[in-house]
Amino acid sequence: PPLDKQHDPLDPALEGPDKAAEEEGLDEAIRILTPFESDPAAASKLAAFRKELHELEEHDRAVNALVTKVRDLIAAEKFVEARDALAEGRGLDPDHEELSELRRWLRPITKALGQADEAIRLFEKGSLSAAEEQLQPALDVLNSYKETYPSIRQRLATAEAAWISALERQQERKRKEQEREDERKRKEAEVQAERDRQAALEEQRRPKAGVDEAAKKVRAAITRERFDEADQALAGMGELRGAESDVGLLQVELDN
Question: Which residues contact 119 (CB under 8 A, 6 or more apart)?
Answer without folding.
Answer: 131, 132, 134, 135, 138, 159, 162, 163
